[in-house]
């Protein structure tokens, strides 16, 4: 799954994580200031943010682009010399491009949040006193918003186009790797489906979860300092009172609660999803045999196999029902949580409409990032079931024993064994 696309996966991912951490720490503890040596200094402390798309070609951003390119180039060069891999242009440079695109996407949200403050303050001023704001001022603010929106749309389209090719390259690498070892793998139950379908599902799901995780981390890096800064406007939290960095603690606490709640509620789902693949495979295999052998796929056998499919699906529906109750309930509460904790501050009249909008947006971004597992749990469940199926290939190639379920299929278990 990984060795076909990434050079020495365990070492590669460990080194990538350490290199990213080192790059982030160096940036925050001196690297950002190095740009001043070439005329690209960081933004002055307390300076108002640049509104709209022009922020992306200010000196701090240009220096970051150079810094990112140098870090990626050094990492790529190391792996090219240490362990050259036929797919490393896509696995290293392609992953770096997706990482960079994700960063730009997060910064689009930051640009939009920077726009919300002055726009809604202007909006409030216009509603408070007639003639205090001209129509031209409001139109100019909407024009800034339009440019942010169009830029975000173009970034999304280009990123998705590239990611589609990235996913297919990963699938191609897995396909070539498995087919090169087909003689050792073809005896595993559903080998053809695992190569033809599961490789695509695995690469697609891994990419989606990976990008979502990176997006969550980058969102936290971008919005946590902003949320900490906005906490100075909050007078007190319900039940808790006034505490430093109140919005940060509220976002983290609420997200941890939701994550634990959903993990406990959905703990049975991965096993049921894998069992679902198992009974479906047994049913499909019997039908395929029946195409060429009239002794196979007889009505009693097919009826029994399909009853196992039905029973597993009904069990899965039941467990998803109470999981969705908790998930939907938490999402409904999450939609109003940031407003509820701001009630004492709103009642005290200490914030403007623009600041309220900025707090609500920043809190939502931080909260949703901490809730990565909450949002991704159904996809993670699906990925685990795919991983278990493809892991049988890895076990065979590495001389490890198959799982108990795969041994039943491989050794020819009874129909009732597959239930």
- Mean residue pLDDT: 80
CA-CA gap between termini: 28 Å
Report the strand count: 0
Give the overall form.
Answer: globular
Could you give a short account of the major beta sheet?
none
What is the SS-derived class?
A: mainly alpha
Transmembrane segments: 12-30, 50-78, 90-112, 142-163, 209-231, 243-267, 335-356
GO biological process, one term: peptide transport
Membrane topology: Multi-pass membrane protein
Protein name: Microcin B17 transporter
Explain the overall architecture.
With 419 residues, the protein is mostly helical. It has two domains: 180 residues, no CATH class; 185 residues, no CATH class. The protein has 13 helices and no strands. The protein is globular. The C terminus is likely disordered. One of its GO terms (molecular function) is ATP binding. InterPro entries: ABC1_TM_sf (IPR036640), ABC_transporter_sub-D (IPR050835), SbmA_BacA (IPR009248).
Quick structural gist:
The chain crosses the membrane at residues 12-30, 50-78, 90-112, 142-163, 209-231, 243-267, 335-356. With 419 residues, the chain is mainly alpha-helical. It contains 13 helices and no strands.
Write the topology of this structure.
Layout: H1 9-34, H2 59-82, H3 88-128, H4 135-180, H5 182-185, H6 191-230, H7 246-265, H8 269-292, H9 299-341, H10 343-348, H11 353-370, H12 372-397, H13 404-410
